[in-house]
Design a protein that fits this description.
- By secondary structure, the chain is mostly helical.
- It has one domain (2-81).
- It is 79% helix and 0% strand.
- It is built from three helices and no strands.
- The chain has helices at residues 2-23, 28-53, 65-81.
- Helix 2 (28-53) runs antiparallel to helix 3.
- The radius of gyration is 22 Å and the shape is elongated.
């Protein structure tokens, strides 16, 4: 039953880590990475929404390579960033 004791130890350590962070005013160092992550999540969602709205029937018959390149870069951004 060591497994359950270790889970209990982990939960207690997690709680104590939050106490330590707020006691020593270190929460400020979590603010910028959290904001950066939220901005990346929002941008990824916007890019995914735009990719879902693309219709390949609307592309011109000739000289559509640039549009395909932009579409591919957006797809790579969505899959790499998320």
């Amino acid at each position: 039953m060591r497994f359950f004791r270790d889970i209990g130890t982990g939960i207690v350590a997690y709680y104590r880590s939050f106490e330590f962070i707020f006691r020593h005013h270190l929460w400020f160092y979590f603010l910028f990475p959290a904001a950066f992550s939220l901005v990346l999540l929002w941008l990824g969602g916007e890019a995914e929404w735009e990719l879902r709205e693309i219709s390949f029937k609307d592309l011109p018959e000739k000289d559509y390579e640039f549009e395909m390149l932009i579409t591919g870069l957006k797809a790579v951004f969505v899959f790499v960033a998320l």
